[in-house]
Design a protein that fits this description.
Layout lengths: L6 E10 L4 E8 L4 E9 L4 E9 L21 H12 L1
Antiparallel strand pairs: 1-2, 2-3, 3-4
The structure holds zinc ion.
Length: 88
């Protein structure tokens, strides 16, 4: 069954003015939390996700591991699109 990430909230947690990178923590509907790194401008939505990692509070919804895995990388695109919507 395909995993369908649903972002319920997103918050910018750090911003680096000098290199235009910012980090966001996103909460998903299934209680999952992810940290995403974006490059670009959050205020215009003109930003691109460069990295995503799952915060280790909940097991991975895909492989069920409760330690580091790379599953979320496959969902970086749909999650980052939703995150940018929330940040507008
Ligand atoms: Zn996984």
């Amino acid at each position: 069954m395909a995993y369908r990430p649903q972002v319920v909230s997103a918050q910018i947690v750090s911003k680096n003015q000098s290199n235009d990178l910012f980090q966001v923590v996103a909460q998903l509907e299934d209680r999952l939390e992810c940290r995403l790194t974006f490059s670009g401008d959050a205020s215009t939505g003109d930003a691109k996700a460069t990295h995503i990692s799952r915060l280790l509070k909940e097991p991975c919804p895909i492989c069920r591991k409760d330690y580091l895995c790379n599953c979320m990388t496959r969902y970086m695109e749909p999650i980052s699109v939703q995150v940018l919507e929330k940040l507008k």
